[in-house]
Here is the input.
Amino acid sequence: MKAGLNRYRIAILAGLGLLTLLLSLMATNLLSQLRDLSMAAGDNTQWSIAQLDTEFANLNAVLSEQLADQTYDDAEVQLRIDIALSRLNIINSGRAAEIFGENDEAIGLIQPINDFADQIIALSDRPGPLSTQELRQVRDMVKDVRPNVRNIALLGVRLGAEQSQARRAEFSQQLSRTGGFAIALLIGMAGLLILLDRLFQRAVRRDADLLASTRRLTSTVSASLDAIITANEAGEIIDFNAAAERVFGWDRDAILGETMEDTIIPPQMRDAHHNGMKRYLSTGKPRVVDAGRVELSALRKTGEEFPVELNITTAQDSGQQVFIAYIRDISARKINEQELIDARDQAERTDKAKSQFLTVMSHEMRTPLNGILGVLDLLRTTSLDQRQSRYADIATASGEILLEHINEALDITRIETGALQLTPQDFDLSDLMTALTDVFDPLAREKNLDLTLDVEDQMRRAFHADSSRIRQILTNLVGNAIKFTDNGGISIKVGGIHGPKSTSLRIAVTDTGAGIPAELQDQVFEDFVALAHGEGRQARGDGLGLSISRRIAREMGGDVTLTSTVGHGSTFVLSLPLDRIEAIHTPSTPVVHQPTEPARPCSILVVEDNTINRKVLGDMLTGMGHTVQEAVNGADCLAKVDDTAFDLIFMDISMPVMDGIEATKNLRNNPGPNQNAHIVGLTAHGREEYRDAAERAGMNRFHTKPIRLDALHSILADVTASSFPPNEAIQTPGALADLISALGVPKVQTIGDTFFEELNAFLDAARAVDDGSALAEAAHKMKGAAALLGQEALETPLAAYEHDARAGELSDSANRAHAMDKIAHQARTAFDQALTAHRKA
Here is the structure.
């Protein structure tokens, strides 16, 4: 601001000086013109020119008088000649010459006069007096020149008057200009004075603002919660605010003049501080200065080190560089951060421990549960009286309930760890809903409840999604509705909105139960929360059903919501996005069916590290008429398969020494009698955890423990259907038997004919088409249809083909198609024979 005012002052002074110089020049010019006018008035040049004619008249009178009187006075004549000549000299010099100047008329008149003067001078300069003749000659010459003299006198008077008038006019103009300029100068000086006054007022305001800003800054620094320390280039402290006193424990008066190195910087950091300041002052390159916030350690007066957040800036003060440090004590924040980190780590450890606990417990509980349910299944195959049979049924039902809880706990673990895998497939929504209603209808009738299903026409079509997970969600919702409703009924309404490529599905399950209070509606979706009887709902065993349902729905891109009114019932709504597909010809939900036993025994190897499970499974298979050998781990399995060929190997996944995945890889990769044996993987974990690994290792199928008698019958029926000759007794696979039971032989025949036609078309395409994506999609579709028809002998190679097609491994596509032709022929023969057997039955 000071520099700006100085520039203003210099500009104003320069303007005033220039104006003064111009005024001085104009005044000087005015005085010169005034002097010229004065001189012109003093010389009276016009009068002198006018006297020239008078003197020539006098000369002529003297000459005429003497010639008339014949009295000659040469002295008088010479005097008059000299006077006339002297007057004549006036017009040739001085002001008169300036008057005439270059005037042509004046030049023409003056020249004869000058010639006269030359002649008179020549006569008068002769020795002796003039003679009478010379006097007459002079008189005649005077008479001749007098008109010119008279005219030049008149011209001189006229020209002199004109020039005097011009000079007076010019002087008047100059006087006016000078006066105007003087007035302008006065106005300019007045304006400059006003400008100076405003500049002064602005300077006063700026000084006041600066003073107020300085006071505010001083107040801010004093009231700041952060320590603010100012130091000079030598590191000496020159300012220390009140917050700095509180933070560091130093009194301001005591620390001023001390260096930062000796007071607030810890000993181990002093060399680095010293070198850094020296480098900054010499190079100007900052590392900490003007580098933003950094976290360092500082030193209190007591010697205690503590963490601080530091920001150093620079400023100029009286030509010297000063450093301003803003310091914040972050001890409390660091403690809080550490507490948060500890709490987070503890929460993560707890969550991890919970997940591990649920995983381990689900596995460890499945293992003994496998033995329990297996023994109960064996027990029910023996001769039991009515009471014993009832006890066995109760124990089996309790075990199945426990297994359901384990599965739900495992689902929670999968969802929380991101391990939940969805298996999209083509399905018919109307068939799924009808099958679901058929399952729950007996339960509703037991409680005298009406169970109704309403599917909008536009939703009676095929979609592509994980139908098993949709069924799981709806099973929870409909099961809860039946369980918690005593009077009235349950309605299931299926609707949706079709978009360009997908459909927004909405399934509403409405009951007429007691309802749920608004303040408790969010709680029913939390883990392990079950409302008591008095709160409008019966107590659920584990409180996981709705929580799992909502989580699975959200994993699928949808949600489960609730609206309820106490005393009027509740409505749970499942909303999901579904991809639409063309109509399919196979049902999506087979009915559980226990097929008959195979006609001939199989040679089976059971690989299981748990003694009880191994013994139970062996007894179940032995009781079914098969030959069973046992192995305690994968390595033991490899040792026993070198010399014996097995029709079927049950392979546990998790075992010591060598697990089932590694053992299966060895069997598939090494030539031997069991390289192509049918291998069924068993695990106490969920299917998702090991599904991909099992398929890549070469397992033909995968089953979660506990494995029940009906599952064993289905597995053995599928294996023997593809491996025994056609002339043996026909055993219908479980899925196919369920399908026949649900739809009847004619409809199943039509479905089967369509399936095998599409399969032949697929195999023909596989020999010629090299589009991996299209073949993978076709194989996926055929695999799903094969599973629904119970054709697991086809399902496994189709799954392998799909996997390789997606990976781009189609170099032997034609050979694979040729190999699958044989399997397809055997499957078609077995399918036709199974239908024939059912027709005869």
User: Anything to note?
Assistant: The longest helix spans residues 132-223. DSSP finds 25 helices and 17 strands in the chain. The first strand starts at residue 227 and ends at 231. The two ends are 113 Å apart (CA to CA).
